Amino acid sequence: MSTVSLWIRYFYRGGVVPLTIVVDNGVVAERLYGFERIQGIDRHVDLSRGVAFPGFIDIHCHLRGLELSYKEDEETGTRAAAKGGYVAVVDMPNTKPRVNNVESLRMKLSSLNNKSCIDYGVWIAPSLKTHEVIEMLRYPGVVGIKIFPEDFNLLSTMLLMNVEKLKLIVHAEDPYFINECRAGSRWKCRPIEGELKAVERVHSNLVSVSSSRDIRIHITHVTNPLTLLIAKKMGFTADTCPHYLYLSSVDELRSGCIAKVNPPLRHLQTPLSLLKFIKYLDAISTDHAPHSIDEKSVDFTECPSGIASIEYAALATLNLALRAELDLNDVVRLLSKGPSELLELRSFGDISPGSIASYTVVDFSGETRVKSLEMVSKAKNTPYDGAVFKGSILATVVRGRAIYMNGEFIGGAEPMPLTEVAKANASWS
Questions:
Q1: Considering 313, 342, 371, which residue would you say is the last residue of a domain?
Q2: How far apart are CA 342 and CA 151, in angstroms?
Q3: Does 209 lie in the same domain as 159?
């Protein structure tokens, strides 16, 4: 990658600092205050119309692909992410075939490398073949293991593997508490008690291992403050999704399959309660889970669960700040700093020399209206349809390269596995 200079107005400690950033091979080489023309640099990008934040990272999304490419694939999914301001995503392994063996992992990583327009990572699924799981964990881009409700019987096996460092991201719903019922009532059939029991089971398994190894547990898409507080009390990190902060069982009743998701949307008062505890969260993920319009058009009891959201999730989070529900420092922590810490990406999206030059630039002067049929995602359906969020994504910059800017996609990003991105600034000199 050639050397490039960026004019940005960087959000820093509650204020905005005008800067000229010189980027060499994706890493900040020089930082100048104010806007300067640097001699000897051919490529210059003026992003000063917006406010630049450390690049947003989605630690939980479903890009589908492989045999599920009719729902979404690595190209449309990452383009949708870039449009939504995300510089990197981590894909989930419940694909077809499931990413629980080396062969399917190689296929998934190949698709991401060939089709992604942003940086990427992968969670793998567990398997009784622990030697193969250990091998998969060594592949570039693999960040850890996803535990779905149906995988709880494999939890202790994963925790006992002979690895020095292990990350688990957990869908916390105990299978015993999972049932189905009509639209608007799924919060009763998959109750909060199921989340709490699942977190307790994870903790019990971890304690029984009694290991000095570095094992990190992350509870994903918590729906309520009780699950969040119990997870934090047990030393786990946790995230939620915008739909658990904006939507409720009322939306499930009104929108039907479009708002059907696991864990389910809760009672009308729960999002308000969760908002009050948002400072305890480590991240906000999207759980972008696209399905075709046909799949979402069948009877509620038959349609698949999942909300398509990655194009609007960051704006929905920013909108909370503009509504004074949280401040912009919280936005940076939840969308960038928290996710980068969870993934051990050092100096990600910072402005000091040696930092990874990935930024999300937001234009606060306008607004964005959600239009399902104009989504980049193949899913063309979202419960946010018709909503208006303040601001818009002006640019998505991946390691110094503007991938999306002024409503258009610009060239390829030469995507990198996040595990390799983590090494980039370490080797900088």
A1: 342
A2: 22
A3: yes
Instruction: Give yes or no: residues 37 and 62 share one domain.
Output: no
Cis check: omega of the bond before 54, within 30 degrees of 0: no
**Structural domain count, the chain:** 2
Tokens of 166: 């292990």
Secondary structure letter of residue 205 according to DSSP: H
Domain at 368, CATH number: 2.30.40.10
- The torsion angle over the Cα atoms of residues 196, 172, 418 and 341, rounded to 10 degrees, is 0
Within 8 A by CB and 6+ apart from 105, the residues are 99, 122, 124, 136, 139, 142
Is the pTM of the predicted complex or chain greater than 0.85? yes
Among 283, 317, 342, which residue terminates a domain? 342
User: What CA–CA distance (Å, rounded) separates 345 from 378?
Assistant: 30
- The answer to whether the beta carbons of residues 48 and 8 sit under 8 Å apart is yes
Asked whether residue 349 is assigned to any structural domain, the reply reads no
Catalytic residue among 251, 287, 330, 350: 287
Residue 408 belongs to domain spanning: 4-52+354-424
Contact indicator for 145, 151 with CB cutoff of 8 Å: no
Task: Enumerate residues 6+ apart whose C-beta is below 8 A from 195.
Answer: 172, 173, 174, 222, 223, 224, 226, 227, 263
Tell me whether strands 165-171 and 142-147 are parallel, antiparallel or unpaired: parallel
The C-alpha atoms of residue 322 and residue 329 are separated, in whole angstroms, by: 12
The CATH number of residue 156's host domain is 3.20.20.140
Is 287 an active-site residue? yes
Structure-block tokens of residue 415 = 């995507």
Is 104 part of any domain? yes
Check whether residue 417 and residue 359 sit in a common domain: yes
- What does the pLDDT read at residue 412? 66
Helix segments in 31-91, DSSP class H: 74-83
Mean pLDDT of 208-212: 78
Kindly report, residue by residue over 326-355, the tens digit of the pLDDT: 999 999 999 999 999 999 998 999 999 999
> Of all residues in the chain, what percent carry a pLDDT higher than 70?
98
Q: For 91-111, how does the pLDDT look when each residue is reduced to its tens digit (9 = 90+)?
A: 999 999 999 999 999 999 999
Q: pLDDT confidence of 429, banded at 50, 70, 90? A: very low
Residues 192, 319 within the same domain: yes
